[in-house]
């Protein structure tokens, strides 16, 4: 199972460093999982890119449509109290921002529930180091080669 945090997931909808690998993960290497908070985070990122002139109106509309279509196929991890408590503990162990801790806690909760190894894909080196420290298989989508 591949878990994508928002820094990786958004690369599916805009062309950035790492986009080819993310497309490969989503299209050929599924299934893909993410936390439900990624829904708001992706929209915030896409809308910021529109506001800052990095996306045209048409590109923004296409990215949003593609995201809505893809969203239905993702394994979405609910933000349960258990995940929040786990995020709190991760913040105490690693230098993480709040949503990064939620993504990491979500991936770890999913790994525990499925009993299988999770590849944690992100573009944030600090988050990837924490993922490795928590025994997830880290994948930096900006530096890894697309298979």
Automatic annotation (TrEMBL):
Per its UniProt record, what Gene3D superfamilies does this chain match? 5'-nuclease
Under the heading SUPFAM superfamilies, the entry gives: PIN domain-like
Pfam families from the UniProt entry = PIN
Which InterPro entries is this protein grouped with? PIN-like_dom_sf, PIN_dom
Domain called PIN: residue spans = 3-127
Which top-rank group of organisms is this from?
Answer: Bacteria
Official protein name in the record: Type II toxin-antitoxin system VapC family toxin
Q: Which organism is it from?
A: Tectimicrobiota bacterium
